[in-house]
Amino acid sequence: LWLPWLPIFYRQAIDPPVPPWRMPWATAIDLVNSVAEGALALLLGQSFPEPSHWSYAWLWLVALAAIFYLFYRHLRLSTKTDAGLVIWAFLFVPVALIYLLTATVTPLYHVRYLFTYAPIFLLPLAAAMLALRRFQWMLTGLAFLVYIGAAVVSLQHFWFDPAYRTDDHRSAVQQLAEQWRPGDAILVNAGWVYTVLETYWPALPDHAPSAATQWAEPWASLPPPLDSPQRLSAFVTMPPAAENDAQQTPALIRTGSVDGGENLGWGNPESDFYPISSADAERAMTNVSAQYARIWHYRLYDTVNDPTGYIRTLLAQNGELQSDTPYPGRDFLRVQLYESKSIQCLSVNALCQSDRSETAQDPQLNLQLGSKPITPTEQITFGDALRLVAQDTPARLQAGHTAYATLYWTPLAAARTLGVDLSMSLRLYDADGQLLAQRDETPRQSTSTWPLTQVVRQPLSVPVPVAARPASYTLELIVYRQDDGAPLSVPDNERSVLGQRLRLATLTLSSADVAPNFGPPLATFDYIELLQSTVNHNNAAAGDALQLTLYWQPRASAYTDNYQVVMELLDSNGNSRQMWREPAGGSAYPSAMWPANQPVRDIKQLQLNPDLPAGRYTLTLHLERASDGLHIDAKRPWWPFGAARLTIDSIIIQ
Q: Could you say which of 2.70.50.60, 3.60.20.10, 3.40.50.150, 3.40.30.10 is the CATH number of the domain covering 368-510?
């Protein structure tokens, strides 16, 4: 079965299609150390502490020779000589071939290539123990205890030594997905590293087959799916003024091996490894820097693909390092963000330019993204510190995805004299003024340092829960001080709310086109499942208001109806002390309108009676059919019988 692959194996051995990340043996000591390393890995695993000096390698070589000798003695005394010969052939021929090719042809050896033979290596070890027991059983017991002790040391290092910790790609990719903005590029190294992003990037199943990448909770949202990986070499001839401002999906760029050998990837255009010259890398990085406002460098094994650090040098020349986040693990993963050295609104394809002079009182802005002009909006001033001159906001979105807004600012003189930096909060409100979602962000460059004569591009985002009701929402902005959270005032007009919030746009939200699956519900009422329930306060005073958030998911059913949610506050004796009855989903979105399998966020405001006595209460709920008041029992997944009420939480009235 292996013979058809033999030509490929031979070519991989003498002409490897990957960068030369293994060093050839220069001296006999290198050979001895490699053999000892292999023996140690076969005996105790790769996590056993390495010898501090090369001379200790002889200890493992002697141990290996003793095992082989005792194994040979066992075979001579055994009647199953043929089985022993098979073990010899299976274990030593391929291992010897790896060492032989490394010594004579190419540096093929790496200790991890021996893991295939580690299980069968236990057979010669066990046979050696049996042979030793024949003439010295006490020595056998001592050898066994020494081996077990050494194995425990190896396991202890494997589980607890930070050097063997798995690289935390899951956290790195998740945080990168949260911080990505339209127009950002992601630069990855070392061929296959891009598969880590494809695996852990939050996306729907058709973009990422891992079930863990779907919506984990009904309040979760997802970023756009990754673009197909591109080679950096594809940007060598790409014009710098290419229009990429409308690009709403993350660009994934593989760097290649700078000045690598022509045999990399064997010339296959589908290969993960390919060579790129320094000159082409410089031209490509110039074009990438001109097309993307920010470049995320997912840095791993770049010292192999780029041993001289040429791409890192180009990144530092064309941009400014804004963040550098290391992640725990064996291979020292880092995620770095580079932005334009000029705060001059380096957008997705060119510098935003302004004809405003420093002394102009009412400038006529001529904003431009490369060859694409920006249409200025009504200019709004926030507290005489910042002036919003243009914006790029979405008009529609699906629930469960992230809304992105790009804002263009001109700082005013008061931004310097304010004495504090500013943060921004992007929010979504429904028609009733109820907050649906928000995300607060602090500009990476302090607002107090924004140049007064330039336009600054600031991208923001807000995650929209997958359980959000399909409707029209307003996208609003608050700019506030970082020291005390006080919002800056906005002019009183039709776009302002309470003199603090600015309406940026109206966003039409539709249901997600994929039905989420959240696992077992808390309870099922007829065909409607209650997924989650949360109360904003467990401790309250009589007369206070509580907020109960419910997440429903109707299953496909031939019968649908409108239901009332009946919430009761029971005292310690089980007596009802207060009751609320409201339509499931509210009057604007009753349950008969809910699409099948789509989650629904349902917020209930519970005003407590001012004469409630102090004590511990239990909040419960059940459903009633709106048409005739039929009581609907709650069915739990783990209990075959229905319950008249479902316990939600305990409330302490002080």
A: 2.70.50.60
